[in-house]
Amino acid sequence: MTTQHTDLTTAGDGPAPTTAGRPPLPLNADPHTSRRLGRLLTGAGAVLSFAATMLPWTWTAEFPGDLTIAFYPAGLQLLTLAAALLTAALLLASAGVTGLRWLTPGGKHSALLLMTLANLGVTWYTAGAIATELGGLVNFEPGMWIGVAGTLLAVIGALALPTDLPPGADGGTPAAGPWQRLRHAFKAPAPGSPAPLPGWAEILIICASCAIGLYAFAYGIEAEDGPPFIGFLVMAAFAAPALGKAGLFRRLSALTARHRGVTLAAAFAAALLFPVTQSNEAYTNIAVSVLIFATVALGLNMVVGLAGILDLGYVAFLGVGAYTAALVSGAETSSIGLHVPFWAAVLIGAAVALVFGLVIGFPSLRLHGDYLAIVTLGFGEIFRISVQNLDGDSGPNVTNGPNGIPNIPDLEIFGFNFGDEHTLLGFELGRFANYYLLMLLFTALVVTVFRRSDNSRIGRAWIAIREDETAARAMGVNAFRLKLMAFALGATLAGMAGTVLAHVEFSVNPESYKFVHTAPPNSAFLLIAVILGGMGTVSGPLIGAALLYLIPAKLQFMADYQLLLFGIALILLMRFRPEGLIADRRKQLEFHETGQLDIPAPATAGLGKTEA
Amino acid sequence: MTTTPTTDSAPAPRSGTGGAVLEASGVTMRFGGLTAVRDVDLTVRAGEIVGLIGPNGAGKTTFFNCLTGLYIPTEGTVRYKGTVLPHRSHLVTQAGIARTFQNIRLFANMTVLENVLVGRHTRTHEGLLSALVRGPGFRRAERDSEQRAMELLDFTGLAAKRDHLARNLPYGEQRKLEIARALASEPGLLLLDEPTAGMTAIETTATRELVLAIREQGTAVLVIEHDMRFIFNLCDRVAVLVQGQKLIEGTPETVQNDDRVIAAYLGTPFDGEPGEAEAAEVRAAEQTGTAGTDTTQGKAD
Ligand SMILES: Nc1ncnc2c1ncn2[C@@H]1O[C@H](COP(=O)(O)OP(=O)(O)OP(=O)(O)O)[C@@H](O)[C@H]1O
Ligand SMILES: [Mg+2]
């Protein structure tokens, strides 16, 4: 069982292992001593940084998060604390402590090194932020110094540890210096397949993971603008690959694949609990916006990720739904002045979006690749400009032109007014929490639609079209019809989400449905969310959308550079992880992914596929 | 894996005396000034294996594309079991003609099983709604499809690789998978475009067995191939296409010994030259040149 990665000795820290029978290892003079020393240093570093979080880091509460109280880690200190604990756990696991081996079914030392880097990154970032914000190193309390030193010590120690060797490679890595070890940690071998666990343990792990996910999401939302949020990102950027190299994500995805129902239920429950954990309306406001954005991104993923139709005007369907709902909401400025119950508004909004989808899709889906993308972009803009012009001046008054439709009343379903605060089971639920829970139903619906259609005759035909349209047609797939179906279905789902959006935001106006804008939702951001998260997956666009919404919301001080930064981040992502943060199930298959002699390296460059 | 997949239809007679499955008459395909296929007639009867050979660029693949609706032929009609085929690829497959491609065109990022399931598309009818509702009917249809697909994978010897990605299969198995995928649409006629290109001798033999087994199940086969030994050992009839035109059609023996065919592949002797001598020289050169390998004569460039 256990790992496929041969640690250099199997005997842990026992008495000097006999090297007889092994080929001499091309590592430092005495690998055993160096490993021992490395572990000692890493351990000391982890302990020190843990201790540091128990001490004040600065003297004034001016720095966000209040890092002044002893024995009360707060704000960024929590991140250091988490990183220190994880480092310790990975260290013990790599030393072969029984009971912790399950932590590293994949690589050991790469994961450890990356985790110490996460610790270093977040702690030193905090130190830097304190120094710059408060003006100088004099603002450090001893705790900060201990943290800085401890995390450095841990990294040095981790660098002294030997690299993880890929399975079957014998001495493939030449005498590795620290720099090579660092690079190796990033490119470490793909983790092997983990050993099975008892069923209850698996379900427990899934639930725990959902809880951790909820906590991370809540932490991200609650993190104050500026330093704390950047610290969060730094931590995530290193800790996530560390856990990946340890093989935990692979194990988790294997588990979730085995227990799909449980996973969905647990994730849904975690999402349901979110507003309960929040007391601040501002945060639930962000959360409901994230949820809408993520749901629409998932709808777009059906069009782009499954059927391979590059739709650059998708946000228009969100707009269609939102405008339809606004028109029938009973808002005073609505040109129709109709007021229908919400369920009817949802149906009407979805139906109108469906019709728009068919009308736009019918001519444009005869085109392929880039041409199709440009045409959808055009239709998206046509929608916005028409809405702007249907103001009674340039055309009939339908949409109230650039003013949009303000003062959309809150929903009321069975006497439950979404605008009021309610107490549910002892929890205070504000306006946005109400909408959040409503939207969650729609998200669940879209997830269900996505999963069920993906794994069916229709979904397979979509993917076949994405992979090779000519071959798909030769296999009897009516490509045009199926693409139209995907396009219209995507439009319908976006339209539905739009009906909720109109009520959450109080108003609709044409400027929110641009192709590109500095804040979501817009077509470009939706597409980025899909690509960033991972095309063709359920969780990918949800995570991508959450990141993409939170980053601009939390980093407003660099608003001017946001698009530039996104551009750079996307280029890096396409270079190093073209499949997105979450890899498609099909790309995750562990069979012979590498090492096939006659198969060229997989060309998975994101959008390339849609050109088929 | 003893199996031959169960088909509802009884095995067709072994000899080529069945009714016509495919009747192509007067098929012409022009690309601008270039006539890639000129007035080609071809008939394939039930239970037959027919070969289509010709030098590179003769128009064989173009002819296939005309048959399967990927190209709309400039002139001529194609009938399948008596009815004229529409010029829409998926309708041709629906009618009962399936094909493979000269340059393998699998769904690279789908698994082996999924590739075959896509081939079942025309023989199953579960729409989007039933996929969303997932009633018992849907589940039964999925199960049946999967079972049928597994039979085909057994038949082609790929069952053990059902969950591999198509792009990770070795070359020979990718070709087999293409055949399995085509068979999944339960065709009455299978068109194979160079099924053994790039295969080893052993794999070629296996492919020959496979094609014979396919015929045993009542599917007629029309096969393009440059490997002459493969064609002449396998086919009941062979047609030769040269520069878009059908030069000759007949039994392997007739075609093999026809001077025009040899000339088409190797070029004609000059006028007034002592032709016999040169022909003998050419034959000798050919003998030595291909000794030890298959008698591959194609790929003259
Ligand atoms: N879409 C097209 N547009 C223009 N010319 C084409 C097209 N398709 C094929 N041709 C031309 O038609 C001729 C016949 O090509 P085809 O691919 O059918 O030959 P082939 O007999 O299959 O050759 P090979 O044995 O090399 O596969 C070639 O000259 C080719 O360049
Ligand atoms: Mg060809």
Question: Would you give an account of this structure?
Answer:
- With 612 residues, chain A is an all-alpha fold.
- Chain A folds into two domains: 3-165 and 190-250, no CATH class; 305-591, ABC transporter involved in vitamin B12 uptake, BtuC.
- Helix content of chain A is 59%, strand content 2%.
- Chain A has helices spanning 31-53, 76-94, 109-134, 142-160, 178-186, 199-222, 227-245, 248-258, 260-277, 281-306, 315-327, 342-364, 369-389, 431-454, 457-467, 469-474, 479-504, 523-533, 539-554, 562-576, 585-588; strands spanning 412-413, 416-417, 422-424, 427-429.
- In chain A, the strands form two sheets. In chain A, strands 1-2 form a two-stranded antiparallel ribbon. In chain A, strands 3-4 form a two-stranded antiparallel ribbon.
- The longest helix of chain A has 26 residues, at 109-134.
- Chain A is globular and about 80 Å long.
- Chain A starts with 30 loop residues before the first helix and ends in a 24-residue tail after the last helix.
- Chain B is built from eleven helices and ten strands.
- A six-stranded mixed beta sheet of chain B has the order 6-7-8-3-9-10, with helices on both faces.
- In chain B, helix 3 (112-119) runs parallel beside helix 6 and helix 5 packs across helix 6 (171-183).
- With 301 residues, chain B is α/β, with parallel strands linked by helices.
- Chain B folds into two domains: 1-96 and 187-301, Rossmann fold (3-Layer(aba) Sandwich), CATH 3.40.50.300; 108-185, no CATH class.
- The longest helix of chain B is centred in the middle third of the chain and has 21 residues, at 136-156.
- Chain B starts with 19 loop residues before the first strand and ends in an 11-residue tail after the last helix.
- The radius of gyration of chain B is 21 Å and the shape is globular.
- The structure holds adenosine-5'-triphosphate and magnesium ion.
- Adenosine-5'-triphosphate is lined by residues 31, 34, 36, 54, 56-62, 102 of chain B.
- Adenosine-5'-triphosphate binds at residues 31, 34, 36, 54, 56-62, 102 of chain B.
